[in-house]
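Please produce the structure of this protein holding nicotinamide-adenine-dinucleotide.
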Amino acid sequence: MQSVTILGASGSIGESTLDVLGRHPDRYRVYALTAHSRWQPLAQACLTHRPRYAVVGEAGAAEALTDWLARNGCDTQVLCGPEALAQVASAPEVDTVMAAIVGAAGLLPTLAAVRAGKKVLLANKEALVMAGALFTRAVTEHKATVLPIDSEHNAIFQCLPGHPRDSLVNGLAGSGVRRILLTASGGPFRNSSPEELARVTPEQACAHPNWSMGQKISVDSATMMNKGLELIEACWLFNARPEQIEVVVHPQSVIHSMVEYADGSVLAQLGNPDMRTPIAHALAWPERIASGVASLDIIATARLDFCQPDSDRFPCLRLAAEAARRGGTAPAMLNAANEVAVAAFLERRLAFTDIPRVIEAVMTQLEVAEPVSLDVVQSADSQARALAQSLVESL
Ligand code: NAD
Ligand code: MG
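Below is the modeled complex.
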């Protein structure tokens, strides 16, 4: 019986994780569930899964949730605030932590799980993008196991030999890997003209053709910053250099990524675009369990298309690749500027095509530092946020 904490249980990945856990009550017990401000989805999940703790971000939400649970006969204890997140991520009773908070807010609780040597199922790519060097060092130091949830990285992991720590420590050297092919759907505006891109609304950007996801990652997919963040994520997870990873647009999202070996073999992982597959894979690894995902109808799929990404229409991909090559605190700055720009776009304060402009201005104006400590990373994050905010206001 494994005891599981879900950080970000009220989100899209959180919900899919609860769905998979609910199919295997004999294998998994829920220890804690967390949400930021929306406590109602957490309340229902507490009734179904009966965790020991529920954590919310605000005192008002904690009070409302406590009342509701008491009225509905559920003895889950409600905690509040960032310390409580770290506590339920690192408690000795916990075996596995699903890191599914969106954005930089996930970094500290995810790191707490890593430092407690947990099995960490990593959906929160922003944590690794921000603090890759510190994060991967902590994984080795505390003998944590990080399993990728991002469908592409989970696919790559399935196509690579060995334990996830092997690639984290030794990299691709000696594994016979020639390159990694990171697939991208291209998002909802794959074929849009620059004029159409300038008029994109939040509703259009959040309507992804293949995947149902939270708002932030949906916008990231539409700008292709998601693929940029994933390129950096892959560099850390597989100890690879950016030039060993090639982004390929594959609009059907059936192949989730590929690994090419020295002998010319290309291994791919295929499946329906449903996050329950990587979640179930990582939960049970190295075993296999049912996820609720339907069989892939390969006949109906009929064709698989591939093309090169267009970094003129999608400059975010180029900006992320540059940040990956620069290293240091550049990826943390890129991530912070992107979070501010995406939030402003969702609030209709910034045009879709101004998202990369804000990020590029931040990247050219700020100095990159060596990420020697969490303080350095967090100060790069705050500086980039402040500058991005003022750029948004001036546009
Ligand atoms: P979501 O917006 O649906 O859910 C986000 C979760 O984070 C919610 O539970 C929310 O309460 C919590 N949260 C938000 N701000 C917080 C804060 N300040 N403090 C504490 N908790 C906070 O997002 P999602 O789509 O589930 O994505 C979660 C993560 O997984 C992201 O990093 C995303 O890039 C990654 N991911 C998602 C998908 C997907 O299909 N949804 C696929 C691959 C990777
Ligand atoms: Mg992905």
